[in-house]
Amino acid sequence: MKTLISSDVSLLANLIQEGKVVIFPTETVYGIGASTRREGACLRVYEIKGRPKDNPLIAHFHSIESIEEVCVLGELGRKLLEKFSPGPLTLILPKKEKSLFPKELDTLAVRIPKNPVIREWIRQTGGPVSAPSANLSGRPSLTKLTDVVRYFEGKVDGILIEEEPSYGIESTVVSLVGEHPILLRPGSIESEELKTILPDLILPSPFESSPVLSVSHIPLSPGTKYKHYAPSAQVVIASSEEFIHSLEVGFDPKETAWIGFSLSGNEGKGKVLSERNDFLSKEGEGFREFDHFSLVSTNEEYASKLYAFFEACDLAKIQTIICEAPKLGRGWEGLRNRLEKASRRN
Ligand code: TXA
Ligand code: MG
C-alpha cells in the first residue's frame, strides 16, 4: 500500500472521509485514526495495531459543541473541557448517538487535541476521528515522525505531518459515567487539578508513592516482551542512589542505557560519565550513533523524551534501560504510571 505522507490537511481529511486510516500527531503522542462513523475503518485500525478488540478507541473532536452533539456532556463535563481542553484530557461520557464506534458501548471516550491545525483537520474530516495511540499493541506509543514512518509506512493510507508531540505520554482519562468520577489513566493533567472540579474523584489504587524497585534485585533477562508501553529492553526503575551506582558498576555499557536527572551530577559522577562516553565512542560505528544517556531536568521533560528514548534503545539493541524514578511533584503521576507499566512483566 502506498502511504501518503503529507502536511496537506485537506488531502488527509479526504482520506478519512473515504474510510481510510491516517496517522496524525497530537500534543501527547501520535494517533492512528479512522472515522468514528465507519466501523470498517475503525476495525482496520485494530488489525494494523494488533489491538485486542475489547479495548475501545478515543474519539477526537474539534470543539466542545461537536462533542455535545453526540454525547451527554453534563455540567461537570463542560467545566472540565472548558478548563482543560483543548488539551491532554479524555472524558468517558454517555453516548447520544448510538451508531458511533464502538456501537456495542453506550459510552464514548472524547478528547480535543491542542494543536489548532489538527483540530482543523478533524473538522474537515466531518469528525470525529477515532484513534488509539499509533504503536503496535503493547509497545510504547510513538512521539517521533521517523519512528511512525518506520513502523507504519505501507500499512496505513496517510501520515499527517504536523508539530511533533510535546507532552510525550498519553492523555489523562476520566470517566464521568458512574456514580462517582474515576481517574482511569493518570497523565499530564493531574488528580489535584481535576479535584478542583471533581472533589470526589476516585483514584486508581495503589496511587501513592510505591517503593522504588532496587536495581540489584531485578533479573536482567533480556528481550522479554511486556504488555504495556514497553520496549523490548528490560526497563528498571531506580532510586537516585541506585541510578548513580549503576553508572559506576556492574552494567555492560554496550547493552545498557540510562535516562534520568542525575547524569549531570558533580563530585566525580560527571567524570564517570565522560569515561564511559570515551569508552563507548571507541567501540565502533554502531555506538557513536546512539546516546546511551538521556539527561532530563524536569518530570515533564522526562515524559516528553521517554518513548522516543525507548525506541532508540531498541534500535540500538540495548538490553536494559535504567530509569531514574521521577521526582515527587508536578508531572510525577503520569510518568510514574508509564514507567511502572513499562517495567512490568506481561
Ligand atoms: O493521548 C492519548 O490519549 C492518545 C492520543 C492519540 O489521543 N490516545 C491514546 O489512545 O492513548 P489509547 O487507545 O492508546 O488509549 C485509550 C484509553 C484506553 O485505555 C481505553 O481502554 C480507554 O481509553 N477507553 C476508550 N474508550 C473507553 C470507554 N468507552 N470506556 C472506558 N475506557 C475507554
Ligand atoms: Mg495506547
From TrEMBL:
Where's it mainly located? cytoplasm
The reaction(s) catalysed by this protein are: L-threonine + hydrogencarbonate + ATP = L-threonylcarbamoyladenylate + diphosphate + H2O
The residue ranges of the YrdC-like domain are 6-189
Query: Where found in the cell?
Result: Cytoplasm
Q: Does the keyword Nucleotide-binding apply?
A: yes
The protein's UniProt keywords, in alphabetical order, are: ATP-binding, Cytoplasm, Nucleotide-binding, Nucleotidyltransferase, Transferase, tRNA processing
Q: Which InterPro entries match?
A: DHBP_synth_RibB-like_a/b_dom (IPR017945), Sua5-like_dom (IPR006070), Sua5/YwlC_C (IPR038385), Sua5_C (IPR005145), T(6)A37_SUA5 (IPR010923), TC-AMP_synthase_SUA5 (IPR050156)
Q: What is its EC number?
A: 2.7.7.87
Family designation: Belongs to the SUA5 family.
Protein role: Required for the formation of a threonylcarbamoyl group on adenosine at position 37 (t(6)A37) in tRNAs that read codons beginning with adenine.
Q: What is this protein called?
A: Threonylcarbamoyl-AMP synthase
